[in-house]
Write a structure and sequence with these properties.
This protein is mainly alpha-helical. The chain contains 28 helices and 7 strands. A hairpin with a 4-residue loop joins strand 4 and strand 5. The longest helix has 29 residues, at about 575-600. The radius of gyration is 28 Å and the shape is globular. The model is unreliable at about 1-50, about 330-380, about 485-495 and about 680-685 (pLDDT under 50).
């Protein structure tokens, strides 16, 4: 099923969005949020005392119905945000934010959408939705994730999609088509991040749900679109026979249901044509693309990317047919008419809908990899894939089949993934990380009851899993189920890994079988996250601790219990976040704006050096807090602090994106500034230029922070000495708990 149709299914009972917007439309976000329908409106020149959600949605529909969205929808949505906020209608505001995400995404306004995504997540947390399983929360998560995916912020999108999956498992029936929408969206993310095997699995599950929920699967356009999406993914895996079957099946459904006049029919035709091209059936490919162009012209016109892409594909297919000496009847199908079914692919956004090409499958070259001891390093090569990718392959190929075979009654209850301590859990590991605590590994998380029943034996079976693997030229990992040798003898023996340090052994082990609560307690000291009403406990948890508890990836979580527990630690209360922002503002002012210049004037290089350290730490932390940990995660421990900051700053959605680079410049100049004297330092110019530059950067960072605080409506003051901004920020803390206030 294509993205538009699936997401419309997710919001079917609430649909109020534009026909060409592929979001989960936002009236769903008002459900379960205890919103009261407001019927009255004030005069046009006054702020409304109430906000009528249905009236807002009807007005938005009217804008799209008269094709005026390009000029009218943006201002309309912005005014609706103001009206809902002024009326104090949080559920109404969440509806507006969800609609805005879809519109901004359709317009490519990804930078602006970051602010909307953050507001929606913060509002949902404030409404208490994030700890439940409401459809409102699921809707918001999916819209936020899809916005992130559209902006190519794939890590954040994947995390949000997985959170949505956990919610939907508990709030929707197994055959609810909205679940299919979610699987379809995940498949698109996996396709866009070159993980076709995972995309295939998600699409097969989406197809299963759609067929199970359909009154007549043989004439259902959503079933047809799902077949085409699956065909295109199979095509990227060079599974041509399966791809052809699914593309043909989609066409058969269009014919049976007399759906040939649907706009999605063009996408179906193009999808089948693409499969034909890969099969070198050039005549059928040409015919399919020609039919697709005719439908696109009828439904969208020629001045669209859809038409241009398909026209280019047609041109290439015609050239290939000519080179092969194949004549195509200009009137239509070459060969027998049954050779050209008509399928329903995701024409607008399909990653396979770009350039065509007959990519024949080839035998990839492989490199054998060892994660053995350092003494054998000269005989083997370093593992060329990340620890997380290795862990996922190890789970998929070894762990999951073992559980299915030996613990079938528990297979639907065991969560798996890689979370916690270790460079690979943050995605920052490299060749230097592989000399200790590195190798094929994953975690299995069980409830207390299940652990008591099978935990010890499952640990034995986990430890016995073969660790031999190879990596081909495309980075695909293959594990060997049985011992084998090759010319280099580079495969490690079963159970081997790089040397395990004491900190990763015993109670501190980083992989294997865990009780869910014990796992989180080993990292944070808590079985579950502190209560939202216990700010003193949250304030005792370091950000690096929370980062370790919420990093990594969850590969499987059938019950959703592990993800729910993990989400609890991601969901820092907003009052706590604001209190920490205030504390960081105080330290930036004290260390960077006050003590640093005074220490430098005194010539106390040691005090100045320590001031720079405190300033850098506080500023880096503030960047993560401003960007909202639920969205970007927490700042990790010092070793990976700047790696994470660079990654965050490189995101098109990042707030305060230039601060990380400015902090690195401060650190680079710090030795000259603190100990440069008269002649030492860059270019032999001594400390003075470095001191001046550092002071300028500190003040510029303060200016940027104040601008951001104003943009988020956390202050009305332009004062750049950041200590004086603290009362303005703390004024937004709702709780009266004195632990949250500095004054």
């Amino acid at each position: 099923m294509d993205e538009e149709a699936l997401l419309k299914q997710f919001a079917a009972q609430f649909a109020h969005g534009p026909d060409d917007a592929d979001d989960t439309d936002a009236a769903a976000a008002a459900q379960g949020a205890d919103s009261t329908a407001n019927q009255a409106t004030d005069d046009a020149d006054q702020s409304p005392a109430t906000f009528d959600t249905q009236q807002f949605l009807n007005g938005l529909d009217a804008i799209f119905d008269r094709h005026a969205a390009a000029t009218e929808a943006g201002p309309y949505l912005e005014q609706a945000m103001v009206d809902a906020e002024n009326a104090g209608d949080e559920a109404g505001l969440l509806t507006v934010l969800n609609e805005t995400m879809g519109f901004y995404r359709s317009q490519g306004r990804h930078k602006e959408n970051q602010w909307i995504v953050q507001r929606a997540l913060e509002l949902a947390a404030r409404m208490g939705l994030t700890t439940g399983t409401s459809e409102a929360w699921a809707t918001t998560l999916i819209n936020c994730a899809t916005s992130m995916r559209a902006a190519k912020q794939y890590d954040q999108a994947e995390d949000l999609y997985h959170q949505a999956q956990s919610v939907c498992r508990h709030s929707l029936a197994p055959t609810d088509r909205r679940l299919a929408a979610l699987h379809n969206n995940l498949s698109m993310l996996y396709s866009e991040t070159n993980r076709p095997d995972k995309a295939e699995l998600e699409l097969r599950e989406a197809l299963r749900i759609i067929e199970a929920s359909s009154v007549n699967p043989d004439a259902d356009i959503d079933v047809a679109s799902s077949h085409t999406n699956l065909a295109l993914t199979l095509l990227t895996e060079h599974k041509l026979e399966d791809a052809h079957w699914h593309a043909a099946k989609a066409l058969e459904i269009y014919r049976t249901g007399h759906l040939e006049h649907s706009a999605h029919y063009a996408s179906a035709l193009a999808g089948f044509a693409q499969v034909c091209f890969a099969e070198r059936r050039y005549a059928d490919a040409v015919t399919g693309y020609r039919h697709a162009l005719a439908v696109i012209e009828e439904c969208y016109g020629k001045d669209t990317d859809y038409w241009r892409i398909t026209a280019d594909n047609l041109r290439q297919a015609e050239e290939a047919a000519a080179q092969a000496g194949v004549t195509v009847d200009n009137a239509g199908v070459a060969g027998d008419a049954g050779a050209l079914p008509q399928s329903g692919s995701r024409l607008p956004n399909s990653p396979a809908q770009g350039k065509t090409g007959a990519n024949a499958a080839s035998s990839p070259s492989t490199v054998s990899v060892s994660t053995g001891s350092a003494g054998a390093a000269e005989a083997v090569s370093a593992c060329p894939v990340s620890g997380l990718k290795l862990a996922r392959a190890f789970w998929t190929q070894m762990g999951k089949p073992m559980i299915a075979a030996k613990y079938p009654q528990y297979a639907g209850r065991i969560a798996a993934g890689l979370v916690g301590h270790g460079s690979e859990c943050y995605g920052f590991d490299d060749a230097y990380s592989q000399d200790h605590d590195f190798g094929p590994r994953f975690c299995l998380w069980l409830t207390d009851e299940d652990y008591a029943a099978i935990g010890e034996q499952l640990e034995v079976d986990y430890e016995a899993l073969p660790r031999k693997f190879s990596v081909d030229a495309q980075g695909r990992v293959t594990f060997e189920a049985h011992a084998r040798s090759d010319a280099s003898g580079a495969f490690p023996s079963a159970g081997a890994g790089s040397p395990v340090t004491p900190r990763a052994q015993g109670a501190n082990r980083r992989d294997g079988v865990f009780r869910i609560g014990d796992f989180f307690e080993s990292i944070t000291g808590y079985h579950t996250a502190p209560a939202q009403t216990a700010p003193h406990e949250w304030l005792m948890l370091q950000e690096s601790t929370l980062a370790a508890a919420t990093n990594g990836e969850v590969f499987a979580d059938p019950t959703g219990l592990f993800s729910k527990t993990r989400q609890g630690f991601k969901n820092m209360p907003d009052d706590v976040r604001l209190a920490l922002i205030s504390k960081r503002l105080g330290m930036i002012a004290q260390a960077g704006q006050y003590n640093l210049p005074r220490s430098l004037k005194r010539g106390d290089g040691a005090a100045a050096w320590l001031s720079i350290h405190e300033f850098v730490q506080a500023t880096a932390s503030l960047v993560f807090l401003v960007n909202v940990p639920m969205v970007v995660g927490y700042m990790p421990y010092y070793k990976w602090q700047f790696a994470a900051l660079r990654k965050l700053s490189g995101s098109m959605f990042a707030l305060l994106p230039n601060v990380g680079e400015q902090l690195e410049t401060v650190m680079r100049l710090s030795s000259a500034a603190c100990y440069g004297g008269a002649g030492f330092g860059e270019g032999g110019k001594g400390a003075a230029p470095a001191i001046e530059k550092i002071n300028d950067i500190v003040e510029q960072i303060a200016v940027d922070i104040v601008k951001e605080l104003k943009r988020e409506h956390l202050t009305t003051s332009g004062e750049t000495f950041l200590e004086w901004q603290r009362p303005y920020v703390e004024d937004h803390i709702a709780s009266d708990d004195p632990v949250l206030k500095s004054l």
